[in-house]
């Protein structure tokens, strides 16, 4: 993400237009790295985000809202004490460095006007936010550090000094002689030489300089190369920084944001592009989409972990019950031993052996068999012991079979969720899956909303909607709630229902409108059923299909579970992608 000095220079100008002469209305700190300033100007309130997150430092105006902690952190309280009601009078940038200085005009306890500053250093893992007074003394910082942990003393009362790493040349001021000296006795690439020696420029900007310079190392002498790079650098900086010739551009790949920049980068020609009239709007969209994607990935991984953990537990219980059933194979033998002991009880003599030998009346040839006994018990007690073992194993077997049936239902439910989770592309899909897990007790239920809080309305189901080559509407459930909705409420009795045979996946509906469905449409629907299942990318996938009137949901069954009859099966190879299918957005 190239939030470099070039971007910051142009953004600073937009922030000045939006915020200078505005007053600080509210201040929040939603997390340990970020502050939100609500600035009131000309009848409107603008929200300025400043984040010193080590992995994603940023500053921009947004309308998006975040949940704030009930108790404000200490740094937030200090900002409120010093800046509430203050007026923003200017916004500066330190050369072309990624350092922003926001100037505030406020009044002290005596009513005298004072100047205070927020200084934001965008320095990767060293990013920080300072509140500084007019004497350049630190009032506080969002990250405090002493000399022991930092080359600077970042504590209340210490003098604010610029970071010691600011030794690079300002590309706006560098001369050709200085520029040429960077390349002397260096074996690094031209791109790395620029990044190592010039401030405020990113790899993306440097790549654009090189492309603009049209440098061909094989055919151009080094001096000429250096000259071209210098001229290209100065020209791009002049157009962007001095003349303000910008085209804020957001780059995406398959719907996911990749990057943004102040101009359209030639090096990003392979990505989809969206242009904006303002740089701040572009940045706001980038971070909003990136945050949504991050939340989506984190929640998806969280749900996957929950499903995997429960699948593992259930699989272990399944194996334990299979073992109990296997052990119960000896139950009839133990009953037989008990019966034979009692049948011969008065004919047997006391013995010092750990077995007795009796006639097996259950076999046609009446052979003699040996029955193990415990010598500290009499024969009647040994018979009772075998009866107890028999009863225990039979009851265990009965319980195990019942539990296996329940476990198989649970496994089928979780495997279906796992298949749906794999195909989830929107946060709403994940929330529906989370809701199913919550209802079934796999996820701790969220507390009920307070009396003065309104419960969120459930969104109308929004299944995938495709149109076949023959013009038939095909619907695919995104989750089990939608599967039930499509099959039990949405579809008509003569619509066609499809599902992979004994493989977890989505319910697929072909809207027939009482028309005959061509084989091509049936095949396309079967391909979608295979793609939106655990059999994705597999070959020879069996897909069952029947009319909706032959599909039933058993009472008290889990979401997405149905039984069906009078079906036929079509065998398909699951597609690796569905770009060729016509989808209705």
Description:
The chain is an alpha+beta fold and 585 residues long. The chain has four domains: 5-159, ibrinogen binding protein from staphylococcus aureus fold, CATH 2.30.310.10; 176-279, no CATH class; 304-423, Helix Hairpins (Orthogonal Bundle), CATH 1.10.287; 464-584, no CATH class. The protein has twelve helices and 23 strands. The strands form six sheets. It has a seven-stranded antiparallel β-sheet with strand order 22-19-17-18-16-15-23, with helices on both faces. Helix 8 (331-343) runs antiparallel to helix 9 (379-423). Residues 442-465 are annotated as: Disordered. Associates with stalled 50S ribosomal subunits. Binds to RqcP. Belongs to the NEMF family.
Name the features.
five-stranded antiparallel beta sheet; 12 helices; alpha+beta; rRNA binding; Helix Hairpins; rRNA-binding; 23 strands; tRNA-binding; 4 domains; 585 residues; ibrinogen binding protein from staphylococcus aureus fold; seven-stranded antiparallel beta sheet
How would you summarize what this structure contains?
α7 runs antiparallel to α9 and α7 (279-327) runs parallel beside α10. A hairpin with a 6-residue loop joins β7 (113-121) and β8 (128-132).
Number of strands: 23
Residue fraction in strands: 15-25%
Quickly name the level 1 CATH class of the largest domain: Mainly Beta
Going by CATH, the architecture of the largest domain would be Roll
Helical stretch count? Answer: 12
Q: How do the strands of the widest beta sheet line up side by side? A: 22-19-17-18-16-15-23
> Would you tell me the structural class of the helices and strands?
alpha+beta
- The name of the CATH superfamily of the largest domain reads ibrinogen binding protein from staphylococcus aureus domain
According to CATH, the fold-level topology of the largest domain is ibrinogen binding protein from staphylococcus aureus fold
Largest sheet: 7 strands, antiparallel
Count the domains. Answer: 4
Q: Considering DSSP H and I runs of 4 or more, what fraction of the residues is helical? A: 25-40%
- Radius of gyration based on Cα positions: 37 Å
